[in-house]
Design a protein that fits this description.
The structure is a single chain. By secondary structure, this protein is an alpha+beta fold. It has one domain (6-129). It is 37% helix and 12% strand. It has helices at 14-26, 40-48, 69-76, 95-113; strands spanning 6-9, 33-36, 59-62, 65-68. Strand 3 and strand 4 form a beta hairpin.
């Protein structure tokens, strides 16, 4: 596996696709790599970290650890430029404050934002960042 942190996202999810594009636009340095949860790489990583193959959350693989849901989202903020980087500090908030909000959005994301039949191809300028 790459030395770069890996973000696993729900490929067909429109909100997830927008989130990845947001990260790419606001990332301070091009450190993060991306793969869909449904891809071979995504499924291999889920098995390696004993996560369910149908996980309903974003996953960040960082330093041989897997973070999911809001924990992953807050840790991803560390790689963004200001002011977005500020949200990295939210990882210190008690989980009971942010986990239910993340799960609520996750449960409704297809209804609110839609779902594609497949994950669209990345922008050619960013293709090397996708596994």
């Amino acid at each position: 596996m790459s030395k770069h942190p890996l973000v696993l996202f729900d490929g067909p999810c429109t909100l997830c696709q927008r989130s990845v594009r947001f990260i790419l636009r606001h990332e301070k340095f091009a450190e993060l790599r991306f793969s869909s949860l449904q891809s071979e790489t995504g499924q291999t990583q889920l098995r390696a970290f004993a996560l369910p193959p149908t996980i309903d959350a974003m996953v960040l693989i960082l330093n041989r650890e897997a973070y999911t849901g809001s924990e992953a989202a807050f840790r991803i903020c560390k790689y963004l430029r200001w002011p977005w980087r500020w949200f990295y500090g939210c990882r210190y908030l008690p989980g009971w404050m942010h986990r239910p909000v993340y799960r609520w959005i996750s449960r409704h994301r297809y209804q609110w934002f839609g779902k594609n039949e497949s994950c669209p191809l990345p922008d050619p300028a960013q293709a090397e960042r996708f596994i």
